[in-house]
Specification:
about 160 residues, mainly alpha, Four Helix Bundle (Hemerythrin (Met), subunit A), 2 domains
Length: about 160
């Protein structure tokens, strides 16, 4: 598992090494530093908080006709999903399955600015999301669309 976390940790160390050369919080050998960086990577639960927020906000943006914001939220959700796939490789297969089976139709509906297709795709994505939770042994985690967006962003064009 640590091997899967080393690539982002090495990049982080290279950047941190130049930007924070005087920092003393990261100590020890290179291997010890890499282990420290790997251990502070967010768990999937933390990542899913951002993911669910973006998923909710893409819904309200699309419903408000702000298709650019909806597309942006989906793009950002996929980027944070990639972090989850990298830092939690045991969950990568389920995350990719959800992406492939549930998000393609959602992306197409957003791109087409098709409210009817979007509603159907979003409903399907919610089902796929909750099926993924169940498949991964977290059937007690059930996504439910909140009554309002979680962001103060303007949801109309």
């Amino acid at each position: 598992m640590i091997a899967g976390l080393l690539a982002p940790a090495v990049v982080a160390m290279a950047i941190a090494g130049t930007a924070y050369a005087g920092s003393d919080w990261l100590t020890g050998s290179t291997d010890e530093k890499l282990t420290s960086l790997a251990e502070i990577q967010p768990g999937l639960g933390t990542i899913m908080i951002e993911y669910s927020s973006r998923f909710t906000n893409l819904y309200y943006a699309a419903k408000g006709g702000n298709w650019k914001l909806a597309g942006y939220q989906l793009k950002e959700a996929l980027e944070i999903q990639e972090v989850g796939e990298m830092t939690r490789p045991k969950r990568a297969k389920g995350l990719k399955k959800f992406e492939e089976e549930s998000l393609g139709a959602l992306s197409a509906a957003i791109e087409a600015k098709d409210a009817t297709a979007f509603e159907a795709a979003f409903t399907g994505a919610v089902k796929g999301c909750n099926a993924c939770h169940s498949d991964e042994g977290f059937d007690f985690i059930v996504y439910q669309l909140p009554e309002a967006p979680t962001s103060p962003l303007k949801n109309t064009p």
